[in-house]
Amino acid sequence: MPIMRTKDENKKEALFRATIKLVNEIGFASSSVSKIAKEANVSPSTLYVFFDNKEDLLVSTYVEIKTQLAHALLENFDDTLPIRDIIRNGWYSVFNYVSEHPDEAAYMEQFSNSPYSELVDKAVVEREFVPFGNVMVKGIEQKIIKDVDISILAAFIFNPLFRLANPRLCAELEMNEEKLEQAFGMAWDAIKL
Amino acid sequence: MPIMRTKDENKKEALFRATIKLVNEIGFASSSVSKIAKEANVSPSTLYVFFDNKEDLLVSTYVEIKTQLAHALLENFDDTLPIRDIIRNGWYSVFNYVSEHPDEAAYMEQFSNSPYSELVDKAVVEREFVPFGNVMVKGIEQKIIKDVDISILAAFIFNPLFRLANPRLCAELEMNEEKLEQAFGMAWDAIKL
Amino acid sequence: MPIMRTKDENKKEALFRATIKLVNEIGFASSSVSKIAKEANVSPSTLYVFFDNKEDLLVSTYVEIKTQLAHALLENFDDTLPIRDIIRNGWYSVFNYVSEHPDEAAYMEQFSNSPYSELVDKAVVEREFVPFGNVMVKGIEQKIIKDVDISILAAFIFNPLFRLANPRLCAELEMNEEKLEQAFGMAWDAIKL
Amino acid sequence: MPIMRTKDENKKEALFRATIKLVNEIGFASSSVSKIAKEANVSPSTLYVFFDNKEDLLVSTYVEIKTQLAHALLENFDDTLPIRDIIRNGWYSVFNYVSEHPDEAAYMEQFSNSPYSELVDKAVVEREFVPFGNVMVKGIEQKIIKDVDISILAAFIFNPLFRLANPRLCAELEMNEEKLEQAFGMAWDAIKL
DNA sequence: GATGAATGAGTGTTCATTCAT
DNA sequence: CATGAATGAACACTCATTCAT
Question: Exposed, middle or buried by CB within 10 Å (0-12, 13-18, 19+), for C66?
Fold first, then answer.
């Protein structure tokens, strides 16, 4: 019975992955600590070396994903482009992230619609999205975008996107390049003046 | 003609209400059968008189809400109006339902983003929304609405709406008559040709 | 697999007995709920039908014993006898109880010296011993007993007794009729004026 | 000549203190090795440098206290005094020790009433109290003290004392110089011929 | 000598469900 | 129809202890 003393971070990441996978497959209710640990090839007690408790694991997993998403969004963020292009870039970045990480996206949706979401320090999460919000403010000032609350704008840009990219909600819908451009067009029509 | 409910139906309804309340407050994971039964002032074993098991209770609760929502949507459905007005009426009906039944709406969101949603017989649920779908088809034929998949259209009409009406997701946002009309305008801009 | 639906009280008593036995044999620290349940031939979950939690079980067991002891003490309590005889009767009653129920006595000692003892509603327990306390008050008034706090008197009457009757503390000591009378004589010498 | 303690001995003592404190506050059952180590500002694994296991720690702590108590008892032991005075000195020495070290005393009581006590090498512990026992033997020979087993004598001298000095058992009782002298008087009355 | 990482075994407790009544 | 008693299985979590460093 060899005792591996590998570096921690591998285990922590394995736990994130296991959490995402299991919560998507069987939901929060059935994703027990022991199942998650087994999926991550770790002893249940080892989980408590990295997280305070189950709640902490779930919330940390969410914050981890949200941060990744923010990075994806800002990766090709170019302030000098026309506003429509900035938003279009962001929209596609998010779509790509969600398409390439459907499990992470599904976890995010399930989490943010559950009471667990109230445990997240929202300031920390939202901070990452500020630059993108600023663009919308600028768009409003330049009379390019409708003068409504930022959260209403965001609801029209990102919410349909999440739904369309979510195979659980839109199993039958196969997105392709053309439909994608149509969808962004609709999002833009919704918010443009 | 007042409907005389038998004792049973009162209990069944009490169980629906208890389920909705508890799942919203503490989530699926913590909403145990015994807690739900206690909240409904019923013995846990009585629950099994009305439902096969916990899963059946959760799914039935969802279907019940979805059906109520469909009724609300179709209540003032008038085929003879212009297409924009039909959709506007539907949009407002849904918004009103969600505003007046925030718990039901939150349950719906939480349920439909969870793996439980795969247990629902979708045909049954979607049947109720067919008339509304037909209106959109007609709108496409009449070149009033963009020619894209119905589910994409629905995503732009209803998804932002649910988010805006959901206090968990938009706690800080106070919707009023003006913002509401703006929001519908945006939804319409998104789908109209 | 026959399902016995015997009357509850049997199980509750079996749990009391199992608790006393195990706590004496292996101590509070090792007396787990599952071990106690197994000793009582009951499922661990059944234990929670009768007691709120482990603490409640331990405290209830103590109160049960204390109540039995009080009954033993008062059984042949005769107010009309001379004060020395009343106290002597009580002293022998307690000694007999402790000799015949060494496990209960040992549990009592272990419990009352542990932090669990702070969870007991002392008013309830002490109420039962009031008549005996009154005799001592009368003895003080009649100048038969030293005028000191009742708890000091009680410490001299009952504490040595418990120690002498406790096989854990006095394993080597075999009490017989003569030593017993000597011991009571010492207790009486301590408190008499 | 100040005693230079090596680093180790400080840690060992810190572990003794932590054990006593925690066992008094939360009992044996809840005093885990890790809690004790944390209280002593030491790693749990360090504990195993000084003690074989948890049991060894608990027993060693008891023996340590018992030895301190014996030292206190013998500190002003003067063989040349009259027997009553020797015993009185011892009685007061013990009372003082218990008053000044209530935690140690409470630990001792809790320990000696638990099954752990069976793990102690009694010969080692009792050896320290031999001189005091000899005094009682001499008292018996000189017809000053009742001719009964030493352990019965000890039970009347020390048991009430421990109870009276134990705040857990006698919370309400405030001992003062007068009550103290009364209490010793009673102990003496119990054993004197 | 001292410790942080790790874990199998076990903790107290709650679970969904059954069954006799 | 409705329920109280009962439980095996599972829960989240902590335990005493080990071992490489």
Answer: buried
* Alpha-carbon gap: C29 to the closest alpha carbon of chain D (Å): 4
Q: Which chains touch B (3 or more CB pairs under 8 A)?
A: A
pLDDT band, residue A1 (cuts 50/70/90): very low
Q: Given a cut of 90, is residue D160 above it in pLDDT?
A: no
- SS3 track for chain C: CCCCCCCHHHHHHHHHHHHHHHHHHHHHHHCCHHHHHHHCCCCHHHHHHHCCCHHHHHHHHHHHHHHHHHHHHHHCCCCCCCHHHHHHHHHHHHHHHHHHCHHHHHHHHHHHCCHHHHHCCHHHHHHCCHHHHHHHHHHHHCCCECCCCHHHHHHHHHHHHHHHHCCCCCCCCCCCHHHHHHHHHHHHHHHEC
DSSP annotation string for A149-169: -HHHHHHHHHHHHHHHH-TTT
Specify which residues A192 forms β-bridges with: A145
When pLDDT is averaged across residues A10-17 and rounded to a whole number, the result is 91
- Which of D118, D160, D172 is opposite residue C155, by nearest beta carbon? D160
Q: What is the pLDDT of residue C2?
A: 33
- Chain C residues with CB under 8 Å of D155 CB are 159-160, 163-164, 170
- Cβ-defined contact of D28 to C114 (cutoff 8 Å): yes
**C99 compared with D140, residue with greater pLDDT:** D140
Instruction: Give the three-class secondary structure for D192.
Output: strand
Residues in chain A: 193
Residue with the bigger pLDDT between C25 and D2: it is C25
Contacts with B146 from chain A: Cβ below 8 Å: 182, 186
Instruction: Spell out the domains of chain B, with CATH numbers in brackets.
Output: 78-191 (1.10.357.10)
| All residues at 6 or more sequence positions from B113 whose CB lies less than 8 Å from its CB, including other chains | A106, A109, A110, A113, A168, A169
Q: How confident is the model at residue B7 (pLDDT cuts 50, 70, 90)?
A: low
Residue A50 contacts residue A107 (beta carbons within 8 Å): no
CA distance D172 to C157: 19
CA distance C5 to chain D (A): 33
Tokens at residue B172, please? Answer: 């800080």
- B50–A contact, CB cutoff 8 A: no
How is residue A2 written in tokens?
């060899």
Residue-wise pLDDT tens digits, B80-98? 999 999 999 999 999 889 8
Q: Which nucleotide is nearest to B48 (CA to C1')?
A: E17
Record: contact B29-A26, CB cut-off 8 A: no
Taking a C-beta distance cutoff of 8 angstroms, is the pair C187, C161 a contact?
yes
Distance D53 CA to F12 C1' (A): 27
Checking if the pLDDT of A174 tops 80, the result is no
Using the predicted structure, report yes or no on whether residue B70 has a pLDDT greater than 80: yes
For residue range B86-133, list pLDDT tens digits in order: 999 999 999 889 888 989 999 999 999 899 999 999 888 888 888 888
- Chain B, 8-27: which CBs lie within 7 Å of strand F? 8, 11
Which of helix, strand or coil describes residue B192?
strand
pLDDT category of residue D171 using cuts at 50, 70 and 90: low
- Our CA-based measurement puts residue B54 at a distance from the nearest CA of chain A, in whole angstroms, of 12
SS3 D6: coil
- d(Cα A32, Cα A54) in Å, to the nearest integer? 8
Residues of D in contact with C164 (CB under 8 A): 151-152, 155
Q: Which residues of C touch D118 (CB under 8 A)?
A: 168
Residue D177 burial (C-beta neighbours within 10 Å; 0-12, 13-18, 19+): exposed
Q: Calculate ∠ Cα B183-A176-A84, nearest 5°.
A: 45
What pLDDT score does C129 carry? 87
**Whose CA is nearest the C1' atom of nucleotide E20?**
C5
Using an 8 Å Cβ cutoff, are C161 and C98 in contact? yes
Can you give the pLDDT at residue B2? 42
Q: Residue with structure tokens 């067009």?
A: A185
